[in-house]
Amino acid sequence: MSKMDKLDKMFLMRKEFMSALSAHVPNAYPKLPIDLSSKQSQQHFRDLALRGVEEVFEALQHLKNTKPHRVTEITEPVDVEAFKEEMVDAFNFFFTLLILMDVDADDLYKTFVMKDEIIHQRIKNRY
């Protein structure tokens, strides 16, 4: 067996968490892969996506100088570890969405590379 790369390991870890959660909380996740054409699946998918967005907002609460209209600057240090932890929480929800869609590390990488090429072309073409 070849050495698992970090992205593969992250997918495996998330799948293991999802399995453990499902063992303790029946129906925590819909049957895999999710059928994005069904109303119930779309609602579940949206709920998970919004939970990820909530985690991003929790991370943003650690940033104190984000208001452009504020004249004074808050000088207390940002709790970078807490910020990263909230971002990982968000990432885990988004990771779950990918897994529910039956996306694996290879699929994600291929799509990432394809989109990266597109956004670089946009810059080059003054999109």
Provide an overview of this structure.
This protein has a domain at 40-127. The protein contains four helices and no strands. The chain has helices spanning 6-24, 39-60, 80-100, 105-124. The termini are far apart.
- SSE order: HHHH
How much helical structure, as a percent, in the residues? Answer: 55-70%
Average pLDDT figure: 93
- What general outline do the C-alpha atoms trace? globular
Distance between the termini: 44 Å
The total count of strands amounts to 0
Question: Which stretches are poorly predicted, pLDDT < 50 over at least 5 residues?
Answer: none
Radius of gyration: 18 Å
**What fraction of residues sit in β-strands?**
under 5%
Count of discrete alpha- or pi-helical segments spanning 4 or more residues: 4
Kindly name the structural category.
Answer: mainly alpha
Describe the sheet with the most strands. Answer: none
Essential attributes:
mainly alpha; 65% helix; 127 residues; 4 helices
Question: What's the quick description here?
Answer:
This protein is an all-alpha fold. The chain has a domain at 40-127.
Topology:
Blueprint: H1 6-24, H2 39-60, H3 80-100, H4 105-124
